[in-house]
Specification:
Elements: H1 3-25, E1 41-47, H2 52-69, E2 72-77, H3 85-98, E3 101-107, H4 113-117, H5 122-125, E4 128-133, H6 142-148, E5 152-155, H7 162-174, H8 179-200, H9 207-214, E6 217-220
Parallel strand pairs: 1-2, 1-3, 3-4, 4-5
Antiparallel strand pairs: 5-6
Helix pairs in contact: 2-7, 7-8, 8-9
């Protein structure tokens, strides 16, 4: 088989799988207009050092949403542990000075980005609104993030299938659903897809166990909404 054909197949099948899952599980959002108050919002996302395909997929999914629904958005991709720290902290510092609401998306395995953010002045950290962390077992950071100034923190309790949750969650959060509702619906859809994965894998995926490990929980304000002051 020619190299170009092999590469084409390698790219085609993950994309096909993604399209099938989306078509079977996700409803269409016809209104893609950003909720009012865009000028108040900024977002930063950081991806840890994973495979090139994972880096590409995370960015292709995340960045368009952030650029559409936030006034300013920055996306960082690490090439090694500790990479991007200076740029991330400098950018976050600027965002916290310019915007009253800054959301953070930590798209990484178990991590300690909280130590980076803790270096910033407390009065600026009070502008951090939502922190979402895909890291396995990083739910335990919730109280510390809230103490640091975040209005709400969403994470996962154990070795999780957080990318499945995140696929549904980002879309609902940016369209204005209350944090609790966006989280609950995304948890339910994640469970549904893990159950399907168990069937397709002939039982090699333990859906019940993985769902318990992956269920997202919130510390802080569960009634937080993407649009400030929204009733």
């Amino acid at each position: 088989m020619k190299k170009s054909k092999a590469i084409g197949i390698a790219v085609f099948f993950p994309c096909l799988a993604y399209a099938v899952v989306a078509a079977l599980t996700e409803r269409v959002f016809w209104n893609t207009q950003a909720p009012p108050g865009k000028e108040r919002r900024a977002a930063l996302a950081i991806r840890d050092n994973v495979s090139p395909f994972q880096k590409w997929g995370s960015k292709q999914f995340t960045l368009p949403y952030l650029e559409r629904y936030y006034d300013a958005a920055w996306y960082f991709t690490q090439t090694h542990r500790g990479d991007c720290k200076d740029a991330f902290i400098s950018t976050l510092n600027t965002a916290l000075q310019r915007y009253p609401e800054v959301d953070l998306f930590l798209l990484a395995h178990s991590n300690q980005y909280i130590d980076w953010v803790a270096e910033l002045p407390s009065e600026r950290r009070s502008h951090i609104r939502l922190v979402y962390n895909t890291g396995c077992r990083d739910l335990r950071q919730g109280p510390s993030w809230v103490d640091l100034g975040a209005k709400a923190y969403v994470g996962h309790p154990d070795v999780s299938a957080s990318p499945v949750f995140y696929f549904f969650f980002l879309r609902r959060w940016t369209r204005g659903a209350p944090l609790h509702d966006a989280m609950e619906e995304s948890n339910n859809l994640m469970r549904l897809n893990l159950a399907r994965a168990e069937v397709l894998s002939f039982g090699n995926v333990n859906a019940a166990k993985l769902s318990r490990a992956s269920e997202a929980f919130c510390y802080g304000d569960e009634q937080l909404r993407f649009q400030s002051g929204q009733e």
